[in-house]
Write a structure and sequence with these properties.
This protein is an alpha/beta fold and 324 residues long. The protein has helices at residues 49-56, 98-108, 113-126, 142-154, 172-187, 199-205, 223-227, 248-251, 274-283, 298-306, and strands spanning 2-13, 23-34, 38-42, 64-69, 72-73, 83-86, 160-164, 191-196, 208-213, 216-222, 234-240, 256-260, 263-268, 287-294, 317-318. The strands form 3 sheets. A 6-stranded mixed β-sheet has the order 6-7-8-3-9-10, sandwiched between helices. A 5-stranded antiparallel β-sheet has the order 14-11-13-12-15, covered by helices on one side. Strands 2-1-4-5 form a 4-stranded antiparallel β-sheet, covered by helices on one side.
Length: 324
């Protein structure tokens, strides 16, 4: 069963300025999120991720199209108590303590006082804030605020948790804590739908992912299916003692040759080119350092779909030549 079904969702912002054209934020977006999975909603800033989440949460109306959440159409108030939501930039009353903050949201969720006490203790321990129970939120770091925000989203034990950029602005430790928490929610059978532009987080924890750009869905599926859709893996060959880019037999089959000092990195489109390249290295008197098949990455797919240019890894790029 699907936890979320989005069907041809469209949102157009109409400007109040005379003569300015309407700006589409979503353009016929369709996707589905299965119950019990972690689903990453990936896209660059301004791609329509937050707009989508606001429409799903009833904070904004779509121009056209529709969606269902937990089997109910948008606007069904009966389903709201089964959803936990953390917006990208939440506002917390900073003079409340962590305990007072969760108590307030617990009362809003209709929890009884007898249940609320142990529930708050459980959640603070879950998000690693047990020792900050009586600390005012104004003294919390960015990572701590994200975690207390997650705790409020979970106070009523929802079936579906919707998070808008939950790892944005966090340091590596904070991001790991949030990732671990999301994984623990899946282990409890809950569904997590979160938007992000941080690719490594998606690769590490998501069951499925959607890539959206300018309000359009460009790719959707399991990460391993998206990055390795049945085609041959590329192969990286590292050698030393020769300038591989100047060897015609290597340059003719390589998709990229990178040179740094005495080492050459030769990128081949598939394993069938490995033997001719190794033969050319031996003929030229070079020494083989390594041969490594390369799996596709979500970053490569993201760059391809968005038309962005990937950053290099420190090797000055040359094709059919060398660079020092």
């Amino acid at each position: 069963m699907n936890a979320i079904v989005i069907d041809r969702l469209t949102k157009v912002y109409r400007s109040s300025w005379f003569g300015r054209a309407p700006m589409p934020a979503l353009d016929g977006l369709s996707l589905s999120v299965q119950q019990g999975e972690i689903y990453g909603f990936l896209g660059p800033n301004g791609s329509g991720k937050t707009t989508t989440l606001k429409i799903l949460m009833g904070l904004m109306q779509a121009t056209s199209g529709g969606a269902e959440i937990l089997g109910k159409p948008l606007g069904d108030v009966q389903v709201l108590h089964r959803i936990g939501f953390l917006p990208e930039s939440p506002y917390f009353y900073e003079y409340l303590t962590a305990e007072e903050f969760l108590t307030f949201y617990g009362h809003l969720a209709g929890l009884e006082r007898a249940v609320l006490g142990w529930k708050i203790t459980q959640l603070l321990d879950l998000v690693g804030l047990a020792e900050a129970r009586t600390r005012q939120l104004r003294k919390f770091s960015k990572g701590m605020l994200q975690r207390i925000g997650l705790a409020q989203a979970l106070i009523h034990d929802p079936d579906l948790i919707v998070l808008d950029e939950p790892m944005s602005g966090l340091d590596p430790v904070g991001r790991k804590q949030v990732r671990d928490l999301i994984l623990s929610l899946r282990d409890q059978g809950k569904t997590v739908f979160f938007s992000t532009h941080i690719i490594p987080d998606v690769e590490m924890i998501c069951d499925r992912v959607a890539i959206v750009v300018k309000g359009k869905l460009l790719a959707e599926g399991r990460v391993d299916e998206l990055v390795n859709p049945g085609h041959a893996q590329s192969v990286e060959v590292v050698c030393e003692g020769i300038k591989a880019g100047e060897v015609a037999a290597i340059a003719a089959v390589a998709t990229r040759v990178l040179q740094r000092g005495e080492h050459s990195l030769v990128v081949l489109p598939g394993p069938e080119q490995v033997e001719p390249v190794l033969s050319a290295i031996r003929t030229q008197g070079g020494k083989l350092v390594s041969v490594a098949p390369q799996k596709g990455s979500l970053e490569e797919l993201f760059m391809k779909q968005t038309g962005a240019t990937p950053t290099g890894a420190g090797w000055p790029a040359t094709v059919g030549g060398s660079s020092e």
